[in-house]
């Protein structure tokens, strides 16, 4: 899966799960996910499971940093970039 496809999947998941109405064109790769109220900290737990399903690898909870969930660019860099 390409970077563009991966980020699109991440944005789609956020739009579907967000408690706050958001249109696709409003959500960019730089949009702050938690700060803007799109996802809560509890939603992030489910999001980690989704990311694991995309990568096929388990994420060690002890290694998770809040900065990894700042926006889709940060998520891609943390969980997908340079990963075999």
Largest sheet: none
Q: What are the segments in which pLDDT stays under 50 over at least 5 consecutive residues?
A: none
Number of strands: 0
In N-to-C order, the SSE pattern is HHH
Q: Any idea what the radius of gyration is?
A: 12 Å
What is the rounded distance between the termini? 11 Å
Shape: globular
What is the CATH superfamily? ACP-like
| Structural class estimated from helices and strands | mainly alpha
Would you state the CATH class? Mainly Alpha
Mean pLDDT: 91
How would you summarize what this structure contains?
The protein is an all-alpha fold and 84 residues long.
Topology diagram in text:
Blueprint: H1 3-17, H2 41-55, H3 72-79
Structure description:
By secondary structure, the chain is an all-alpha fold. The protein has a single domain, classed as Non-ribosomal Peptide Synthetase Peptidyl Carrier Protein, Chain A, CATH 1.10.1200. The chain is built from three helices and no strands. Helix 1 packs antiparallel against helix 2. The longest helix has 15 residues. It is globular. It starts with a helix and ends in a 5-residue tail after the last helix. The mean pLDDT is 91.
Features of the shown structure:
0% strand, single chain, Non-ribosomal Peptide Synthetase Peptidyl Carrier Protein, Chain A, globular, 3 helices, 84 residues, mainly alpha
């Amino acid at each position: 899966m390409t970077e563009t496809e991966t980020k699109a999947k991440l944005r789609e998941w956020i739009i579907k799960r967000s408690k706050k109405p958001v249109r696709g064109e409003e959500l960019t790769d730089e949009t702050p996910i938690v700060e803007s109220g799109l996802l809560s900290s509890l939603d992030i737990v489910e999001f980690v499971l989704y990311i694991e399903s995309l990568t096929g690898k388990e994420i060690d909870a002890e290694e998770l940093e809040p900065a990894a969930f700042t926006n889709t660019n940060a998520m891609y860099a943390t969980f997908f970039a340079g990963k075999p």
